[in-house]
Amino acid sequence: MQVPGGGGGGGAGREAGDTRGRHRIQAELKKLEQEARFLKEELQELEKTDIISAALQEFLVTIEGKADPLLPVTTGVAYQSWDRWFEGPEDLRRCKCWCL
């Protein structure tokens, strides 16, 4: 004699499967809520970037107009005698250098 709702495990198996399905749906819903919250935060940050980019534009114009105090202002070679060390040899065929 079979007892309704018991015995074969059909009812208990369905309940366990339902709780797993419910848990999976809740986890997916939580994940979607987190993504929505993240996207809202990103949107708020992007709205602020217009203000920041305008300020940066002004800053760049100000900085680019000034010369760098750490770089020397020269129009040519500072020391002519140093220039020969940075040039190649005049005649490569007669040069016996291994590095060239």
3D structure, described in words:
The chain has a domain at 10-66. The termini are far apart. The chain has 100 residues and is mainly α. The protein has helices at 10-64, 80-86.
Short description:
By secondary structure, the protein is mainly α. 62% of the residues lie in helices and 0% in strands.
Brief descriptors of the model:
about 100 residues; elongated
Global Rg = 38 Å
The low-confidence parts are none
Head-to-tail CA distance between termini = 100 Å
H-E order: HH
* Arithmetic mean pLDDT: 75
Structural class: mainly alpha
Question: What secondary-structure arrangement, pairings included, does this model have?
Answer:
Elements: H1 10-64, H2 80-86
Organism: Brachypodium distachyon
GO cellular component, one term: plasma membrane
Region (Disordered): 1-21
